[in-house]
Amino acid sequence: MIARRTDALLGAGFVVLWSSGFIGAELGARSAPASTLLAWRFITAVPVLALWFAWRRPRVPRRDLALHVLIGLLGQGGYLYGVFEASQQGVDAGVSSLVAALQPLVAVALAVPLLGESITRRQFAGFAGGLAGVALVVGGEMGGGAPAWAYLLPFGAMLSLVAATLVERRARPSVGVMEALSIQAAVSAVLFSGLAAAEGALVPPAEPDFWAAVAVLVVLAMFGGYGLYWVNVRRTGVARVSALLYLTPPTTMIGGWALFGSTLRPLSLLGVLVCAAAVATALRPPRESGRGQARSRRPFGVGWKPADSNADASGDPAIAAPSARSTVSLPSAPSRTASASASTAGCRTPESSSQVSSVRPPRST
């Protein structure tokens, strides 16, 4: 009983802290451009990560270094800039959160033609339902102050994150979570500092709201949300944490309503419910036969091929959770390197707590 309550509290804390990234983006957008806010988010975080890097002195192969530079540009640079610029243009944080929450489903769908992964009819139905739910939410929010084109920004951000996921899935870098996060944060600090300087906006404003947003983004979203992500993974498994990620859109919407007076429109709430049902459909565990074995379900899709050892017994690949690096890896069998040294944001197939270290996590906002 105590363990269940502890898991419930840790799960609730994770959802709130993960959602805080979208709230921080909207708060910061009220006092500074997106490039300024992102530059100082990483300028503030990099020294902490640099201290850890200097203490551990990990060896990073050149190949992995180059890969994480690319993943950082896509998963941190493209993803975060799209989300933060959307807030700058007036898109509600809840909308961006909802679109971002569809990333694992989109990644799985694109893995069919691009990586030859398999997808079941149930997952395909969940993907289609998720898109329908997002359409309802965006339709309910249109006309709320943001220009129509601004609603494309969260989608572009999400696709950039998907691209980072697919790169990681195909290349499979071997470095650990903190090494990857450190490299990507350093790349992002250089990227956004250069962008802010080019815009003449590198000097931070003195407004308290700006520094409150930076604190929320670094302390709560990056370190708090990412830290609780791993705590929950180790205690309850990847599948449950993947499901918890889909509680962030309604949490963000409620936070936006409480802090910024955002309107909760009926059509938007209906869209959230549709998305929740779609995700539940996609993540629902396979039924078991009398022998306790999962029934075989026929995967389908462009470029389909028989499910590999990464899929569960039903042929359903596990939906990955978003990563601390802003990437969510698709399901893959643990590599020899990962097995030899159990130890970055984005995760995959549900595994026992003893195997969690070999799974890679998602990226917070």
Automatic annotation (TrEMBL):
Residues 286-365 are annotated as: Disordered. Keywords: Membrane, Transmembrane, Transmembrane helix. This is Drug/metabolite transporter (DMT)-like permease. It comes from Actinomadura algeriensis. It comes from the Bacteria. The lineage of its organism: Bacteria, Bacillati, Actinomycetota, Actinomycetes, Streptosporangiales. Belongs to the EamA transporter family. It is a multi-pass membrane protein. The chain crosses the membrane at residues 34-53, 65-84, 90-112, 124-142, 148-167, 179-198, 210-231, 243-260. SUPFAM superfamilies: Multidrug resistance efflux transporter EmrE. Its main location: membrane. It is found in: Membrane. Residues 9-138, 149-281 form the EamA domain. It holds the Pfam family EamA. Residues 331-345, 352-365 have a biased composition (Low complexity).
